[in-house]
């Protein structure tokens, strides 16, 4: 029997062959799309890659059951702007009005570190004086626990009880979690400033004889923070505290949260 060598046309295919052809074309197209997407991501800038990764990581699958045996999956993409707003809201819940003991004028805002301890810009307080913070109708008396070399003073409630330990606090991040390219937000009671981590470096202060009297880790950012943010809290987009805005002779500086908390721990155990 002589073999038919005439070309096969699309109209010559039966229904089964057409379905197989469509499946084959879909498979080849999906592979080509994946290769192109991977190539574009590899060639993208670090900032673009970071944004893509954040969107993927923040994609939430909400599963709702409409009827027995039927499940509908809805994908909700959380934008970076929404994460910033959420982080600011959570951080500001831990700020409380600061006054001198017996006074009515608000000096500024004290940030709750937890367990009855608060951080505040050193320019707002004086060592030896008593202060109060107010939460609702409750007033807590505080005294100075430690004055840091970078413009932040730690205050502690004089007689801490269960209520002060229940005040809102924001989780703290470790220094190992502060990586280059990470988006951070400096938050005070009135100002907000978004930036990007460039590096983490160790700074120190020296006394007589060039002896190091204090050292800490500082977060280097893409731009200089405004001086009005001294005393502000710096959080990442997961609303974890990564640092505190302090002041040095050279200007504004972000002190890592781990460094500040380590100093508080030493001051309260001595």
Written account of the structure:
Among the domains are: 77 residues, Beta Barrel (Thrombin, subunit H); 95 residues, Trypsin-like serine proteases (Thrombin, subunit H). It contains five helices and 14 strands. About 2% of the residues have low confidence. 26% of the residues lie in helices and 39% in strands. The termini are far apart. The strands form three sheets. Strands 3-4-5-8-7-6 form a six-stranded antiparallel β-barrel. With 270 residues, the chain is an alpha+beta fold. The radius of gyration is 28 Å and the shape is elongated.
Would you kindly provide a brief summary of this structure?
With 270 residues, this protein is α+β, with helices and mostly antiparallel strands. 26% of the residues lie in helices and 39% in strands.
* Weakly predicted, low-confidence segments: 60-65
Tally of DSSP β-strands: 14
Global Rg:
28 Å
Name given to the CATH homologous superfamily of the domain at 175-269: Trypsin-like serine proteases
CATH topology of the domain at 175-269: Thrombin, subunit H
CATH class of the domain at 175-269 reads Mainly Beta
* Main sheet characteristics: 6 strands, antiparallel, barrel
What is the CA–CA distance across the termini? Answer: 102 Å
The CATH architecture assignment of the domain at 175-269 turns out to be Beta Barrel
Order of strands side by side in the largest beta sheet?
Answer: 3-4-5-8-7-6
Q: Provide the helix percentage.
A: 25-40%
Run of helices and strands: HHEEHEEEEEEHEEEEEEH
- Which term fits the overall shape? elongated
Strand proportion, as a percent range, falls in 35-45%
Helix-strand makeup class: alpha+beta
Overall residue-averaged pLDDT value: 82
User: Can you count the helices?
Assistant: 5
